[in-house]
Amino acid sequence: MGARPLRELAAHKRRILIVSDDVSRPTPVHEFVELVLDELHQAGASTEQIEFLMALGTHRAMTPEEITAKLGPKTASGYRVHNHQWDNPECLDYIGDTDQDVPVWINKRVRQADLVVGLGSIMPIDICGFTGGGKILVPGVSGQVTVDQMHWTRIDVPSHHVLGKADNRIRESIDLLARKAGLAFLVNVILNTNNQIVGAVAGDMVTAHRHGCSIARDVYGVPIPHEFDIVIADSFPFDNEFWQANKALDTAGEIVKKGGVVILVSPCHEGFSQTHSEILEFGYLPVEQIKKMVHSGVIRHKVVGVHMVQASAVAIEKARLILVSEGITKQQAHKVGFSWSPTPQEAFRKALEIYGPSATVAVLKDAARMLPLKPNEGRYDAIKR
Questions:
Q1: What is the pTM of this model?
Q2: Which range marks the domain in which residue 178 is found?
């Protein structure tokens, strides 16, 4: 869509870079990457001319086993694969500022390539409306300052102006810089709740992505008739750490009543975050207090501040959070300001003690990817039918 076929774009290119999303995303890249590689080889590119870069953002590096699972054994062993080094200035190039004056530092491998292809998936997300598209580069393979500033520009934009909207000013800046960095072609898929591919788009990073967003709205849009006293949500497939599980909390926050209870069920085997230990140090605080800590430099990384604001807006200011997790202890949960239960049943019992048997209850399956549609939104009635 909006681009020449990949094999035509790849003709006579000497260095081709494929940028793939990382282990924090459920995209089954191994199911379609060989189709992409076949196109490149049909164009005359050799295996030595093609390499992969894993878009970590500021996540931890992927292990060899995770790279194999993501790309498939044949691809992982047959091509050069690199983890993005977001915290290494020597691996980054400055390419300009966004409209919000965010300095953009991008992985040098992107700038050195003759052709850049992005692989990922599209789902609703609070930061910029939907995942996918140019986000694979900005902030996927950007430096720490870019990731920090890019997320912080979102902090005072109301959620309903962004979530589930393909066109917004955050996305506009992402697209502008990703195109400037050289993203020439993308392949994005849309997954169902079983992580099966139910839609796919390929081509220009904006044209194809926007079409994919329309598919994603139909897949993930769920009519929500009203707010609920108790909201129970799972974070699958974003279960490795609370940094990712927070996506489900964002959704629950759209649905829970003021003063209600959210029960978040998530393994979080890697705790709160492997790369942002400040979360356990500071805990989740009132939103204005977090903002002051960011502006004063107490919280050094703004991306941490954004995460804390998102979680606190729901779990501290709007509702009470009861966390059900094997990877986060009761002591750790209490330290950051959350309640904790060993099982969903026990958490539900606690919630009913607060509200009584007449409480209204919503159970959100696959909450991390859900796009809640409320009665005053145009697509509510259409999808309800």
A1: 0.91
A2: 6-221
